[in-house]
Design goal:
mainly beta, single chain, globular, Porin, 160 residues
Length: 160
């Protein structure tokens, strides 16, 4: 399954659109309007919350974002390195080992789960906002969308 994640050009809370190959909406990403931690919610099309994604409030040198399940249990921590020259990101505290092989902001990266490829992220080149193509099995898509949003949150926080 392929989905396209695109940050909205104008959104009060920093939401994103998630559409399939036919340009039909498949998930909603809603941003909280006044949030120091850039809190976002990944919801299905009925509005049911699947994941909450937010940045760590205060970062010294290593930036972090957290992914929570629908019951507000922290299920993963996404972080970068102190000197993150290669744009590498690490996923900790998740039940399986998740690794992004390749630089996240290069044109293409592979997502590995316990050493096996489960998805591919391709950066879409736009001048206005960030956009990504995510290809993975349908069962992995919601968590991987949350992962892409978490990394994008970290990058946005570092830029501003």
């Amino acid at each position: 399954m392929k989905v396209y994640i695109k940050n909205k050009f104008w959104s009060w809370g920093g939401g994103s659109s998630v559409v399939n190959e036919n340009k039909e909406p498949v998930f909603q990403v809603k941003g909280k309007v006044f949030s120091i931690t850039r809190k976002k919610y990944l919801c299905d099309m009925e509005g049911n919350r699947l994941y909450t994604i937010r940045n760590k409030w205060f970062n010294w040198f290593i930036h972090k974002a957290f992914i929570y399940d629908s019951n507000n249990n922290k299920i993963a921590t996404v972080k970068d390195k102190w000197f993150n020259i290669k744009n590498e990101y690490f996923i900790e505290d998740y039940k399986d080992e998740i690794k992004i092989d390749g630089q996240f902001f290069s044109l293409s990266s592979t997502i590995l789960k316990n050493g096996e490829p489960i998805g591919t992220i391709r950066r879409q080149l736009t001048f206005i906002n960030d956009a990504f193509e995510l290809e993975a099995n349908e069962e992995n898509i919601p968590f991987l969308i949350a992962l892409v949003i978490a990394i994008d949150n970290i990058v946005d926080k570092k830029r501003k």
